[in-house]
Design a protein that fits this description.
The complex is a heteropentamer, with one copy of chain A, one copy of chain B, one copy of chain C and two copies of chain D. Chain A is of the alpha/beta class. Chain A contains 14 helices and ten strands. In chain A, the strands form three sheets. A five-stranded mixed sheet of chain A has the order 2-1-3-10-4, with helices on both faces. Chain A is globular and about 60 Å long. By secondary structure, chain B is mainly alpha-helical. The N and C termini of chain B lie close together (12 Å). Helices cover 76% and strands 1% of the residues of chain C. Chain C folds into two domains: 152 residues; 210 residues, MetI-like fold (Orthogonal Bundle). The chains are: A alpha/beta, B mainly alpha, C mainly alpha, D alpha/beta. Chains B and C meet through helix 1, helix 5, helix 6, helix 9 and helix 10 of B and helix 5, helix 6, helix 9, helix 10 and helix 13 of C. Strand 7 of chain A pairs antiparallel with strand 1 of chain C, so a sheet runs across the interface. The structure holds adenosine-5'-triphosphate (2 copies) and magnesium ion (2 copies). The site of one magnesium ion has 4 residues of chain D, from helix 1.
């Protein structure tokens, strides 16, 4: 079988259920692939891993991939399983912020490590400065949990619909006690989890074929995971996930982002993402050739 | 042994004091969130009930000692040792890369020290850079090291062990330079009057004279090595190990897990330092050391 | 000059010289240096050979002249090699590395010659003490530059030092703000408070034997713990700003100081303490006049250890949540943005700050413990 | 003479046993001793016989495990607290971070003397031991002999009536030693101090003392007490007189009696 | 006797200047010296006059900065490499991690002698210095005197024809010292070794030597050379004979002449 190494963006959890399901259910095997899934972590940059040859394909957000592309790692989006963004900003209802107009002068928690672009694009759109001055907002680099809100260190924090949001619920907040700013709902979403491979390698037809099979099997895995979310959560647990209930809920939420599991990239969201990055000077030139529909077209007939 | 008895009472009473302070702090630190919770739930518990609740939150700001103890006990003794949730298993994962890194680090430190003591060029050029190397924030470099090593096909235990090596070679190198230079001038002169060869002087004089220094610095090195292994586990995807437990705990705000992982780390650290200490004492005794 | 030309003196005088000559021959046979055209032009190539041969030849001269020519030859050649590879990244052939190795060997020879010099003037001795490690450090950078450029290592894995240098020069305001946040707020405060508290606790433990017997075993154990693990907890308790970083630094520096000071207070000799007894000196008199001065080497040892620990602690703590400034913040975000050169710029600044910090403590140590054999001796 | 003056040191049935990990070591056993005011008493005996230990008991640096001892009619502890004696250790024990003059100043600072008084005493005692001109040097810049003299100066600056000296001249060469012996005798005569002096050298003991106490080892006992019949005025060449040699021979015999070669 | 036998050590116009951070220190200046086979030469002089330095030059532990010196007709370096001498240091310098017998074995291991030969030599020399029974003890379990004897045994085990001894008995009490003096004399007589011996004690120098070299300090010079007229057979009580005392007086005068009190 052909070997494929997949580098995830984060630790093993239902966010990546499709790949684990595809592996466990033998979808990869059926395509003649032997796939190794490498979990990520807080300081693992998948772009670095693929640049160093440690992976054939990575799960990444478009922002990081375009930045890397400009730095000489020619990443190409070959599939986009997540159609919508899972990120949102939440504020407690009894706090000072009720609408976008209330942000001024308050402290907002944001994730960095490539996850900050949507937030800055949004603030840019609102015309708010982010340098901590009185007519802007104060930005905190938030840890990967919901403590800043519980400890009242921030007025609003970033959460993923499928993950940290539920930690807040666990911590005793009721959904009706929270104000939610969802990036997708606001039309501010940038592309999240997509599959990226190296442009150079894709020129090799054999590799391209391998990727077609990989994407086909992965999307089959995603479909299965969406349809059987409890079983998918169990598979994630078997592969090192933590806290089964949490994974089940996460699977449920992730399913909402997948849509119809065809992995096709939406050009409008792509354009928005590229523009946001340009506006923030994360990249300096309009990117070209940063995605291809060739793979998904062949994979999903 | 009677020094042990001398220490027993003070140590236990100070530990008891720490416990009391810990409980008080737990109540104080957990109180605001509990108040929020009660307010949202519309409850008004009395003081005793309230204190009881502050000490039984599932994700407290500061877990009470008994919460940590229970968690530690469950994860140490009630889980299958091969289970990913067993602290014994995770401690073993960390321990193995600690030991490997410690072995590398000690060897590297000794080699550097021998070089510095014997080669004038190294003596004069290397030392400032060895010190500078230790001021590099290792956690920042660790992920990159791991990625670069993965790029050349080195994965698993070795990358973590290399971070341990990086942290542990320093105390050994510094200690051994001191140790290999510790023979008194008359002892060196004596060797010279015998027309001893450099290797004879090295093995018969410098090496034995440096042994106490070696073990003292190995104690520091083994602790540094453990820190390295834990740091090295953070960016490897939090698969297994004490570092992974810490990270997973932080990721899900499972403070009790963090604390019991910390306790596990402490136990490992204490054991490692103790083992090195005992080895040192055995060697010292074998070399005719004078009992203290 | 005739001596230079006479055949008998063509042979190099050191093994480094021989090896360098052999490497040069190899490089000549495997010409050219890079895979691409135009690559190196002929004049540059000849100049590199000439410089290296010159360095090998001048090994026959008196030490100072020898060192100067070795220095010029080795570093001039290295400079030309690096200048040529820039723009031709990833195309280096074996001969490029052979030339580089030859230059490196000659630089080693240069350091060996310099190490053997015994200058009489104090000024020259100090200069030598600085030059020798500087050459060593320069070669770390030269080899790093040559390998990253020569092998064309992707920029986002490991940028060459020249790019890092450019980045430092272009980002001074950002770097300065980060240093202010991390070092001038968190590190200094935490270092002073942590070391101070450790010192006072040591005195208290010394005064109250019960405390000493109880605290020391605990302190010994705690100082071996992976304190880094408390960083997320401190962020949880003390908030995002520098206070939580300072708290981590305080915890990290407290125990080394405690343990060392207690050891130092026990370091004064029996006879010296008996002497104080014969004067019926009070506890505090003995402490200030005998035991603290005798403990100074230990206390400085702790201060030195703490100077590196403090920096690492603060930067690590910033990984778990910060305002959007600080060295740890910058390192972790810029990795995410693939600005690896900025990451290395921060690391370089951290290493520099740490070395300066260490150096300042070491200078203080020399001034205060001038009487200690380890300082007197050298 | 001894009986008439009031006892400065008086010990009876004094014993001291060290508890070591190898078992108890009896360092002193059954020592009876009375030293009167103005006496110069030397202690001599083989290495390890307990001379230093006895001096340390007098100085309250060790507690006897049996018997009784008084110093100036007080317990040793009270005597120490009233700063009744100066002590010169076997090694110089100078503080390396203090210059010579500040080393001599140390006990004076602790007693809380005025700066002027301190300066006067430092000058006087450093002159006495021939160290003027070295005030600003650090101990490691001096030879062993000079260091030892500085430590003697330090004890003298203290100016107590009782001086306990533990082989103060052990590290010095014979000529310097002779010179300091003369100086010490002169000082003793002039100030009427009481001096307890430990030495390994028979001529030194005989030359200096009014009484020589010979000790024997394991456990340390007083094996002989020899009263000197020499006059108070003692030029250096008194050491060639038959009277001197006779006393020296007695001391040597006493020493040899209690001696075994395997230490 | 001196002139007839071949010179073991011969120095002419020997000088040695140490370069220190405070400026040069002239430790030896213009030393002329010839030591014949089988002689027992003592060096005596005030502290810091260069006795140790002279011995170290002979042993090739220091290089002279002027003048010439030969040992057994070779340069000191060649002599050292041919293991021409045994050296006893001022301090015992035993290795604390080796037992007494393994300390004595050290030079023998380095020479590469067979185990059996080593054992035989160790036994013989430890017997000689009265340390049998202490073979398996570590240095710290022995008294200072016993340690010094062990270090002498180590030098003797080396069995070189020339013995350089730097105040070997300085740390011992008089009785043990007398005993070792006798033993050393006996050894010297029996083996016809050449011995260079540094001491601070005038009686010791006179008792042991065939020749006494008096040195004076700053810079170290030979200020007097005294040939002993005492017979080779010397019982201990020879020290009370007028002949002995006369030589001792001459040495003392020589010493005093070159002495200044401020070291
Ligand atoms: N602190 C101690 N613990 C145990 N034993 C001790 C201690 N101090 C001294 N001794 C033992 O007591 C005995 C007497 O020692 P002391 O120092 O009084 O001898 P000394 O007569 O002064 O010898 P020296 O002439 O060598 O100075 C020795 O056997 C010594 O080993
Ligand atoms: N390594 C050195 N560097 C500088 N000066 C030295 C060194 N060794 C000895 N000296 C100086 O040389 C002089 C002679 O020293 P040496 O040790 O030979 O004296 P000594 O006669 O053996 O004295 P002692 O009787 O005290 O042992 C002294 O003034 C000493 O300070
Ligand atoms: Mg004594
Ligand atoms: Mg000497």
């Amino acid at each position: 079988a052909d070997k494929v190494t997949l580098q995830l963006k984060w630790v093993t959890q239902a966010q990546f259920a499709g790949y684990y399901v595809a592996k466990d259910k033998g979808f990869y095997e059926a395509e003649g692939l032997d796939v190794e899934i490498k979990p990520g972590g807080p300081d693992i940059a998948p772009e670095q891993v693929i640049a160093g040859g440690g992976a054939d394909v990575i799960v990444d957000w478009m922002g990081g991939a375009l930045a890397a592309r400009e730095k000489g790692v020619p990443l190409v989006n070959i599939a986009q399983p997540f159609k919508k963004a899972g990120m949102q900003l939440v504020c407690p209802k009894d706090g000072p912020i009720k609408t976008e107009a209330d942000f001024k002068g308050h402290t907002l928690g944001v994730w960095f490590f490539g996850n900050e672009y949507p937030f800055y694009a949004w603030m840019n759109k609102l015309g708010l400065k982010t340098d901590g001055g009185p007519d802007g907002v104060t930005v905190l680099k938030q840890s990967f949990d919901v403590q800043p809100l519980i400890q009242k260190q921030a007025d609003c924090i970033s959460v993923m619909t499928y993950n940290e949001y539920w930690q807040l619920i666990d911590a005793g907040y009721k959904p009706e006690e929270l104000i939610v700013f969802n990036y997708s709902a606001m039309g501010n979403d940038l592309l999240e989890d997509g599959l990226y491979a190296s442009e150079d390698k894709l020129k090799d037809p054999a590799f391209e074929d391998k990727m077609v099979r990989f994407v086909r099997a992965s999307m089959k895995g995603w479909k299965y995971a969406v349809d059987n979310s409890d079983e998918a959560a169990g598979i994630v647990m078997d592969n090192g996930g933590q806290d089964e209930n949490h994974q089940k809920r996460m699977m449920g939420e992730v399913a909402k982002l997948i849509d119809n599991a065809d992995g096709k990239l939406d050009p409008a969201t792509y354009a928005r993402t590229a523009k946001a990055l340009l506006d923030q000077k994360i990249i300096t030139k309009e990117p070209t050739g940063a995605y291809t529909t060739a793979i998904t077209d062949k994979a999903i007939k | 042994m009677d020094s042990f008895r001398d220490k027993l009472i003070p140590v236990t009473s100070i530990l008891a004091g720490v416990m009391v302070v810990w409980y008080i702090m737990a109540v104080i630190l957990n109180a605001p969130f509990q108040r929020d919770l009660d307010r949202r739930a519309g409850e008004t518990p009395d003081v005793v009930e309230f204190i009881g609740k502050t000490m039984s939150q599932p994700k407290p700001t500061l877990p009470a000692p008994h919460q940590v103890a229970v968690n530690f006990f469950e994860n140490t003794f009630l889980r299958k040792i091969t289970s990913n949730r067993s602290l014994v298993y995770n401690a073993w994962v960390t321990l193995s890369s600690t030991l490997l890194g410690f072995a590398f680090g000690t060897a590297l430190g000794i080699v550097i020290a021998v070089g510095i003591v014997h080669v004038a060029t190294l003596d004069r050029s290397l030392m400032p850079w060895i010190i500078a190397s230790q001021t590099i924030p290792i956690l920042a470099v660790a992920p990159m090291i791991i990625v670069v090593l993965a790029a050349v096909g080195v994965t698993g235990l070795i990358p973590k062990a290399l971070i341990s090596t990086y942290l542990s070679f320093f105390p050994v190198a510094v200690g051994m330079v001191k140790g290999l230079r510790s023979p008194e001038l008359t002892h060196l002169d004596l060797m010279y009057t015998y027309n001893a060869s450099p290797s004879q002087t090295f093995w018969k004089l410098r090496v034995p004279a440096s042994v106490p220094f070696l073990f003292t610095s190995m104690k520091v090195a083994v602790a540094a090595s453990l820190v390295g292994a834990i740091v090295g586990e953070l960016p490897t995807g939090a698969v297994a190990g004490i570092g992974a437990k810490l990270l997973a705990g932080a990721y899900y705000s499972q403070t009790i897990d963090i604390w019991s992982a910390l306790v596990a780390g402490s136990v490992v650290a204490a054991l490692l330092v103790m083992v090195v200490g005992i080895a040192g004492r055995i060697v010292d005794r074998a070399m005719g050391g004078r009992p203290a | 000059m005739s001596d230079l030309l006479s055949l008998s003196s063509i042979a190099p005088r050191s093994w480094q010289g021989f090896a360098a000559l052999a490497l040069l021959a190899g490089a000549f046979l495997l010409w050219p240096l890079v895979d691409v055209t135009p690559g190196y032009d002929v004049t540059t190539g000849v100049l590199i050979f000439f410089l290296l041969l010159l360095a090998i030849q001048f090994d026959h001269f008196p030490p100072v002249a020898r060192a100067i020519f070795l220095f010029i030859g080795a570093h001039g050649a290295a400079w030309l090699l690096l200048a040529g590879i820039t723009g031709n990244e990833g195309s280096a052939r074996a001969s490029f590395y052979l030339m580089l190795a030859a230059a490196w060997l000659l630089a080693w020879r240069c350091v060996t010659v310099l190490s053997a010099l015994r200058p009489t003037s104090r000024w020259a001795a100090t200069a030598l003490r600085l030059i020798i490690p500087a050459i060593f450090g320069a070669w770390i950078l030269i080899i790093w530059e040559a390998v990253t450029r020569g092998a064309g290592i992707p920029f986002i894995l490991l940028p060459p030092p020249s790019a890092i240098g450019v980045r430092i020069a272009n980002s001074l305001p950002v770097l300065a703000a980060d240093v202010r946040q991390t070092i001038f707020k968190a590190v200094i405060f935490g270092y002073v408070v942590g070391s101070g508290a450790g010192f006072l606790a040591a005195i208290a433990a010394d005064r109250v034997p019960f405390l000493r017997r109880g605290l020391l075993p605990i302190g010994n154990m705690v100082s071996a713990l992976p304190i880094i693990g408390v960083a997320p907890i401190m962020v949880m308790w003390f908030g995002f700003d520098w206070q939580s970083k300072a708290a981590v630094v305080i915890i990290m520096t407290f125990f080394p100081m405690l343990v060392n000071t207690v050891a130092g207070l026990a370091a004064s000799g029996h006879m010296e303490r008996d002497l104080m007894r014969t004067y019926a000196s009070s506890y505090w008199q003995t402490l200030f006049k005998l035991r603290l001065p005798a403990a100074a080497p230990f206390i400085f040892n702790a201060l030195k250890i703490n100077s590196t620990l403090a920096l690492i602690g603060a930067i690590v703590a910033e990984f778990f949540g910060t305002p959007v400034v600080g060295m740890g913040f910058r390192i972790s975000t810029e990795v995410g943005r693939m600005n690896i050169d900025m990451v290395w710029a921060e690391i370089a600044v951290a290493a520099l700050a740490g070395s300066v910090f260490y150096g300042v403590v070491a200078l203080f140590e020399r001034a205060v413990t001038f009487w200690h054999p380890s300082v007197r001796g050298g | 003479m001894t009986g008439a003056s009031p006892a400065v040191v008086s010990a009876s049935k004094l014993g001291l046993t060290f508890q070591t990990s190898d078992g108890p070591v009896q360092a002193l056993s059954n020592v009876d001793l009375t030293i009167g005011k103005g006496e110069f008493v030397s202690f001599i005996g083989p290495s390890g016989c307990g001379k230093t230990t006895l001096l340390r008991v007098i100085a309250d640096l060790e507690k006897p495990t049996s018997g009784a001892i008084s110093v100036n009619g007080m317990t040793p502890e009270q005597a120490r607290e009233s700063r009744a004696y100066g002590y010169v250790f076997q090694a110089a024990a100078l503080y390396p971070w203090r210059t010579i003059s500040r080393n001599v100043a140390l006990p004076l600072e602790i007693m809380g003397l005025s700066k002027a008084e301190q300066a006067a005493r430092i000058k006087r005692t450093l002159d006495l031991v021939n160290l003027s001109g070295f005030e600003q040097k650090y101990p490691w810049q001096l030879s062993g002999g000079m260091q030892q003299r500085a430590s003697i100066a330090r004890a003298l600056a203290f100016d107590a009536d009782l001086l306990l000296m533990d082989e103060p001249f052990g590290a010095l060469d014979e000529i310097v030693r002779d010179h300091l012996n003369e100086q010490l005798l002169e000082l003793w005569e002039r100030t009427n101090k009481t001096i307890c002096f430990v030495t390994h050298s028979i001529p030194e003991a005989v030359y200096l003392s009014t009484r020589i106490i010979v000790m024997s080892p394991r456990p340390g006992r007083v094996s002989d007490v020899i009263e000197s019949t020499l006059p108070k005025q003692r030029p250096l060449d008194i050491r060639e007189t038959p009277e001197f040699l006779a006393i020296a021979a007695r001391v040597r015999d006493g020493l040899r009696a209690g001696h075994s070669y395997d230490d």
